[in-house]
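P.,

For your records, the input lines for the assembly:
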Amino acid sequence: MGRGLKFRHGVHPPDSKDLTAQVRIRRMPFPDEVVLPLKQHAGNPARLLVRVGDRVERGDKLAEADGVISAPVHASAAGTVASVSLWPHPDGSFAPAVRIAVEPYSAQVPRPRIIPDWHGLTAGELVDAVRTAGVVGLGGAAFPTHVKLSPPQGAKLDVLIINGCECEPYLTTDHRTMAEYPERVQLGIRIMMRCLGVNRAMIGIERNKPDAIEALRRTLPSDLAVTVHPLTVKYPQGAEKMLIDALLARRVPSGKLPMDVGVVVQNVASVATIAEVFETGLPLIERIVTVTGGGVKKPSNLIVPVGTKLRDLLAACGGLTDDARGIIFGGPMMGIALANVNAPVLKGTTGVVVLSEAECRPPESYPCIRCGHCLDACPVFLNPQLLGSLARSGRYLEMEQHHLGDCMLCGCCSYVCPSNIPLSQLFQAAKAAVKRQKAAA
Amino acid sequence: MSTAPLIVSASPHLGSPDSTPTIMWSVVGSLVPVVAAAIFFFGPSAALVILAAVAGAMGTEWAFGPPHALQDGSAAITGLLLGLILPAGIPLWMAFVGGAFGIAFGKLVFGGLGQNVFNPALLGRAFLQAAFPVAMTTWPLRGGSQAWWSLAGDNLALPFMSARETDALTGATPLGLFKFEATPTETWSLMLGATGGSLGETSGLLILACGGYLALRNYLNWRIPVSIFATVALVAGGLHLVDAGRYPGPLFMLFSGGLIIGAMYMATDVVTSPVTNLGCWLFGFGIGLLVVIIRVWGGLAEGVMYAILLMNALVPFINRATQPTVFGTVNQRGRT
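Structure tokens returned:
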């Protein structure tokens, strides 16, 4: 297919998507309680609006956006606010969260509401509707979508890129969304194009999802310039900078945003959610989650109320096998390993991967043998070997000069390292240390 | 649900199946045919010399190295490679000392695996060359009145007591023949290995095949041997065109001496070669150039060992000069 459909470097982990790639999405039953952290997005945590004992219906607002880069949080099930307290968060910390005891006999019907008709709305009104619905990026980073949809004055945008790569192994959330709801994705693209004022959209999908490519090609609108582009299967194809390079051969300069090369990238599940806001009028209170891995008895793609605790989610998938050893929120390359099954599903939770003993990375580590495999893997052409040795001796500011800031913690270097050196962990720690040093200075 | 604890570690949670021990032991495995060829050409002496060098290297690593260091296989490689670049008739105690020296002073003093500047096997050989020049340049030949199973040269000599055996059949290497006696050797004998020389440097095609297997598995950087061979072929070819009588042809240069085993197994030692691909091209170019210079104009018949050791010393500078250009930045030449 020639140039333009892949990026340089990257790695090829086994994609392991067979477990759920052809499993239809099903709706999980409502759990007994849901826990909604106030911080489920990049930016400021939301401001609490409810009190303990309040009765809430499904879709009611629990907390309001605090500032521009923030998003409201809505009740994902009808019930009573049981507590507002610190609760295990999927990032490993304890964070303020609203716990709702779900009404067991409720029909879970949301309050009557006006569904906005997108045909008649201006770009600003569309963005407003997305903001009040609490939509954030569903690809993992959970950046508030309305911020992305309102580019600053003077920004010259020409292309909207829809990210359907799903390059993380195991996950099939985006895959199933595209295969089962292609019309919804197309509606979302139409609305986004109107918001951004661009007249060209490109959908990038890795070639290992032929049914998704086919479904989106079949539903392409005839009146808009939307195209579907199959991409090489390679991790991290779905990283914004890699995707833009692959599709348009434009390189986002170091330290800049996709907007600086005229592009907005949006994950395909978020696009579908935008469309859903205008289909149902409901805010973002449920999402599609892949629960998979060798440690799950019944790997599934589920529609899950946001705030469902991990234990309820795993129970809905038949529970864990005897050799389950690692529970990962998100994909296995960038996700977070958790030991607390009370942590809830967030708006940005793409999946839960339970690895069996055989699938986990072995614990043994060896000295660096300077093989250079990490340099060949790094998609942003860093020298992880050098950065790793600097990190080990605590020379964080020197790492800055070697472009630590460009590292996106994709984990390719750690993945290929034959000595199993936790490079991306070292870089994450170094980034935090640099931030602290700068704040102190 | 089981009671075994869950693993909570940082991402990524998957790892490539190629671990450092896998790579190291694969290198050892890939050398098995080369060792077999050495035994075929030089008889049981070959096995004894290689075993002595391996024992010296692994024993030293075991005695002075970090705990469990033998499991990673790097000491076994050092011993094996050193054994393969020794003459068949060398006293076994010398081979043992060479292995021990290579590990102790070529690797452990720097801090063990991954820290050394010079290839330990070559350092061991350089030490032997300096300490025992006669034993290191006496090349037994097979055939003649000797049976295949008889030991070559002074294998069993006691330390510092070696008395030369008078009737051993020895001969010069093809490079020595060419340089000092102006006698060329058939290219086919060079490729297959029926010549004088060190144990493992005589069967060029076999070493190429074994190294090629490692390159396919991405266990060695193919750019280094390709760069070395190309440089040697081009430079030697150019000289040969100028004066075919004085300068040997490129095929002779490629298949004689230790060039092939040096390029495939010594120069590609991951620890002592550059980490960048561009650096690997430069590194190979430097080695190729030095090999031709030493062979053609130097006082020695063979220069692969010193060429690699010299370029090993330059690796930190090569690494610094060939840092990759970070995505989305502009390098000094103005290219992205």
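Two observations worth noting. Chain A has a mean pLDDT of 93. Chain A has 13 helices and 17 strands.

Regards
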